[in-house]
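Appendix B. Worked example

We walk through a single record from start to finish. Start with the input: the chain for ZF-HD dimerization-type domain-containing protein, Pinus radiata, length 66.
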Amino acid sequence: AHVVPRSMLQGAGGDNDQDGSSGMSYMNAYGTGGMMPIVMKKRFRTKFSNEQKEKMCAFAEKVGWR
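Next comes the structure step. The output line below is what the pipeline stores for this chain.
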């Protein structure tokens, strides 16, 4: 009988205890990375003061963007 090593059963990335270089190619090739989902942070939205908004609008008028 043929015995498959446990690392082969987990996918092309091998054991996660290794240096991770082979696992990275697996993650990039398939996008999901197997059992490690990628969590993206929501982008922080810049808040402008009224004074900043007025200056930006004045500049936009001056250069012809409005």
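Two observations about the output. The two ends are 76 Å apart (CA to CA). Residues 50-63 form the longest helix (14 residues).
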